[in-house]
Design goal:
about 160 residues; mainly alpha; Four Helix Bundle (Hemerythrin (Met), subunit A); two-stranded antiparallel ribbon; 5 helices; about 75% helix; about 0% strand; binds fe (ii) ion
Amino acid sequence: MRIVASGRMDRSFSSPLPLDSGLPPAVLLRRAHGFKLDMCHALERIADNLPDNIDRVECLRIANILAPSIRQIHVCEENDIFTAYAAALAVSADADMETLRRLKAEHVEDQCFADEVTETLLGIGHGRAIDNAEAVGFMLRGFFETMRRHVAFERAHILPVLDR
Ligand SMILES: [Fe+2]
């Protein structure tokens, strides 16, 4: 089940990224990162093609999967992956807990940002004129660059612990 951009529930949704519980946390995180980086690449392509070469169908495709997928990934990370990370470290040091607090805070920011990007892509996908391509590009780049930094941090600091 997913929550579509309109906020209603859609039970026909099948996840674009199987994040089945039961898989090793490192596998889950690599899958999550792979999906996020694919999203970043797709958003970068859209940004690069502003304003005249926009693929409106691609905008709708991304708009339909972005926010629910990011939400699903964050739930998986926080429920399964971060728990495994904390257990692997037997966390007691404040610095380690601070890392998880920071990553969770970034998840909230990314989710809000994903909702804004979704609204914009839906508008473009439905044929709305792009009045300010620079602002749209700035927003898209801000989103995927932030997400890439988050992924890079988790790769550098979370994955090595899970791989031990
Ligand atoms: Fe994350």
